[in-house]
Amino acid sequence: xxxxxxxxxxxxxxxxxxxxxxxxxxxxxxxxxxxxxxxxxxxxxxxxxxxxxxxxxxxxxxxxxxxxxxxxxxxxxxxxxxxxxxxxxxxxxxxxxxxxxxxxxxxxxxxxxxxxxxxxxxxxxxxxxxxxxxxxxxxxxxxxxxxxxxxxxxxxxxxxxxxxxxxxxxxxxxxxxxxxxxxxxxxxxxxxxxxxxxxxxxxxxxxxxxxxxxxxxxxxxxxxxxxxxxxxxxxxxxxxxxxxxxxxxxxxxxxxxxxxxxxxxxxxxxxxxxxxxxxxxxxxxxxxxxxxxxxxxxxxxxxxxxxxxxxxxxxxxxxxxxxxxxxxxxxxxxxxxxxxxxxxxxxxxxxxxxxxxxxxxxxxxxxxxxxxxxxxxxxxxxxxxxxxxxxxxxxxxxxxxxxxxxxxxxxxxxxxxxxxxxxxxxxxxxxxxxxxxxxxxxxxxxxx
Length: 448
Ligand code: SF4
Ligand code: SF4
Description:
- Keywords: Cell membrane, Membrane, Transmembrane, Transmembrane helix.
- Helix 2 packs parallel to helix 7 and helix 3 (70-86) runs antiparallel to helix 14 (272-290).
- Helices cover 54% and strands 2% of the residues.
- With 448 residues, the chain is mainly α.
- The protein starts with 6 loop residues before the first helix and ends with a helix.
- It contains 21 helices and two strands.
- The chain folds into two domains: 7-290, no CATH class; 306-447, no CATH class.
- The radius of gyration is 30 Å and the shape is elongated.
């Protein structure tokens, strides 16, 4: 009987911790520096599943889904290679989201001294759920040409480090945290679309875990440490579909009844598995970097190619927005009541003017509608209504807000964002006064 050791687990947790910290670093850096061609890539660029999501668009049009680029294909290639050679070694030794759940579960075990399992039938049925998740995501992504899973993705919610918006992904993450305290790797077992995809390649693996029935006493220790809750003590060979090759079971078995079968040309020690995993994963990335194929963000000409205000991003400036949507810069400074120098600031930094990304998208849409309307019919001062603001009037007739304020006898501190009728208590029939003043200004313009 062999004494229980923890060397392999320590090694695995160290490797997982390094990859976890790396993603935390990339996530925070993106928030601090911002995205875009001059910034830091979003966490999406480091997700192997992104390669699968963008595959259809890339092979049909040569384009990528926004926020995804060549790095996603390279990572997808690396994990598929890993799956074919080692089984789901990526899930057990590299995936930071798997590690996150596993550590929570260890914490739960320490605090509550117990882990729970779902009834066998339910567990078996739920394991197929991830294939449905995979199919639904790919179907909708390929149909819409958008990263639809983003808002539902707990991995993204965790590593994107932007927690102020309550997305479905964040809700799933918040549910997953208490669940993981009691249930082992619930996301990996039941919902992970990447895990589902990799299971199509795991069967090719040359690393197998074999149980020697003649020495096994069916103590169940292996099953208790297995994060994928596999009934190891009942099988001759651990099924590749669910196993993440963490080797916890191999290490815990005091009777040495579980052995890792390695390919013949490799040494038959369990330590060879992490070495192969790291060589294949880091080697693929290293070779792609050395050969110049590793690109994790789109160049400017691609990043600025947007068609809808919904695609405006925080790393863009209002000057970029003006150029992309053919809006006069002056119109934007009036619309947002900002000084001209603010046009060169990233939108995400316009907080000090009370402007958020969402406001910019909304107002650009408004301006687009107004432009279309204006093309149909030139506005008349008679169209001015009490519910409009001074800013609206300014945009409609291209008259600076300051000029309007002066002509209407308003004070500089009067807000141009409030409805015209709200000035009625100071100036009776204020909207009528605005109509008359605008008429005069237009007449004066005609004379010059
Ligand atoms: S394989 Fe080892 S740990 Fe698992 S049941 Fe048999 S003796 Fe126990
Ligand atoms: S069967 Fe063993 S190697 Fe596979 S997931 Fe369970 S504990 Fe890890």
